Amino acid sequence: MLKAGVLGAGHLGKIHLRLLQQSEKYELVGFYDPFTENATKVANEFGYKLFNSVEELIDAVDMVDIVTPTLSHFECAKQAIEKGKHIFIEKPITNTLQEAEAIRTLASQNHIRGQVGHVERFNPAFKAVKDLIDSPMFIETHRLAEFNPRGTDVPVVLDLMIHDIDIILSVVKSKVKSVHASGVSVVSETPDIANARIEFENGCVANLTSSRISMKNMRKSRFFQKDAYISVDFLEKKTEVVKMKDAPETPDEFAMILQNAEGLKKQIYFENPKIEPNNAILDELESFAEAIQNNTTPIVSLTQGTEALRVAHQIIDCFKSQNKQ
């Protein structure tokens, strides 16, 4: 079992602590949180060992789980890597692209494994259809959330949209060609609503919308590809798969047939992939343990986390250009 320690005992940190303690792949050694009152409360309530410093915790473990505010990700990761410890780091990987590149380089030089917490990759609905998503040419995502002060220290792109950026980059096997975006600040100093259009070199276009001041929560993505439409509801954990194939000469009387202007007939088929219930956060943590033990590339590598951040900052740069006009 890998000895694991958690940096940060906020809302998400407490979830990570509980799941690491449950996991059969880790031995939870303890945690550190600089906010003494909260740290003491968590330690007393759940019985986790509270360390006196970041350094003390890092020295005691094999893997450091970084669940601190984004602004501190870089320093925490740097300290852990320099001590030869593997790192699981919550999304976004770091605050700036330069920090992400530095972490990626440092981890490579020290032969350290690192995984970024893009948890939607482990969403059971996405896992059920990801192998069916093949060369999508148009993607549309909506990630809407009710207002929550937690997370408003960063733009909605780094708070919410980055989930969809990572999903899109994982299924589109092409380089980003251009990015266009606009954002509006309503209650925060940074944009609360954003729309982005990402064009890829292979012709695929992705249209992303994110809001953290909506009246209801929504996390849906739709993928359109040759002869198929795939919808993923990350919130409700549901999928919809519609495929089209050349219609047979004598179709079943109940078959749904489409005929285009050229007379070509297609039959519509509905597929219902089996969705296996899971705990996505536990799955991502345990998949990282397997990557460490098997010396394999983590499912969401530091490189992939960096690329998601790169596109996110291209979108944010569009906001800055928009404000100068």
UniProtKB/TrEMBL annotation:
Coiled-coil positions: none
Transmembrane segments: none
Annotated ranges, domain GFO/IDH/MocA-like oxidoreductase: 156-216
Lineage: Bacteria, Pseudomonadati, Bacteroidota, Flavobacteriia, Flavobacteriales
Database matches in Pfam families: GFO_IDH_MocA (PF01408), GFO_IDH_MocA_C3 (PF22725)
Occurrences of domain Gfo/Idh/MocA-like oxidoreductase N-terminal (ranges): 3-118
Gene Ontology molecular function, alphabetical: nucleotide binding
Name of the molecule in the record: Oxidoreductase
